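Lab notebook page, bench 4
Experiment: in silico fold of construct C2
Operator: M.H.
Input chain length: 370 residues
Purpose: comparison with the prior construct
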Amino acid sequence: MQKIKPLIKKVIPKKFLPKITNLFKKISTQVKLGFLSVFSSSKLLSNWYFGILNHDFIREHKATLAGKKKYYKQLQSVTDSSYLLRRNIHRLEKGLIMPERRSIFALDFIRETVIEFQRMVENGNVQLASNAEIKWADDVLEAYFSAVDQNNPVISRCSEIYRISKSKLNQCSEQSKLKSVPFVRDLESETVSYADFYNLSKRRRSVRFYEPEIPDRKLVDMAVLAAAQSPSACNRQPFTFRLFDEPEMVKKVAGIPAGTKTFYKDLPAIGVVVGHLSAYYRSRDRHAIYVDGSLAVMSFVYALETLGMSSCVINWGDEEPAESKMSALLGLEPDDRVLMLVAYGYPKKDLLVPFSSKRNLESIRKYNEY
């Protein structure tokens, strides 16, 4: 098509070019609609389309399978965190908070949970035994076995495994008296007003031009800590904030996305939010990294605003060669997926930012409509 265009311009008089161009666009649109109508008419044809004619999803397919493989390999290796343990301990917490709690629950996964707890304790060291994840697991398991019927044979056997593991854990590290278990929130203490929060949300705007000063890492870490408080499916938190504030490294990272060409050279810092598909053993959860990562980024962005910094969330399109470039630059694992990038820093004063009119309430909210 690129070779044909110059030829058409030479042959067709200029006054007819707009009409000819519009005609071609209409014909092209109709052809695309007909083509897509056929292949979107059934699951089988859709699979053929993305399996033979279009390979846009091939990276996701590969990463999802690599994630499953890594998930099971992690269950056989020494790690400082376990997605399986995090998920199951959170499931136990959900059972413990039920208003009308049953005396027997979690029979379908309690053995799996205590076996994983045992593995993490026995394969760990002093640092592992004293980390927040193990303490959380220990406290919740203690609360669980204190709450359920010990006469149940499954619970009784699992309780014994847990007690043996706990004794080894206590030999490694003295546990804090403050328990990491479900609790009643203090709803009477001072809270952030809606007006303050709404003003913060309006103040936040995508900023593309910053002071050259490198952001204070202590403040940035505070923003990351706020991001860690965001909701996450079964508390897996399947993401990592890869932060860069060394000028040359920032340029290399920021120059890869398609949407940064006009401002990436002067960014003081940038973060790459990476999702880890190794957090899941089922393909159905492959999109959870995008949901959980986005929730965390929003908290990160708001926290930066409270700390005197601004940010710009940069869209990451799933396409080559950007995917391969970023993967090679960051040394990503096969199951890792870049979710988005976030430029951040101290905003330049008196510079314009987009107004970005938002959709009105009625267009984004519906009550009780099927």
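Observations: Strands lie at 239-244, 270-276, 310-314, 336-345. Residues 5 and 21 are 10 Å apart (CA to CA).
Next step: discuss at group meeting.
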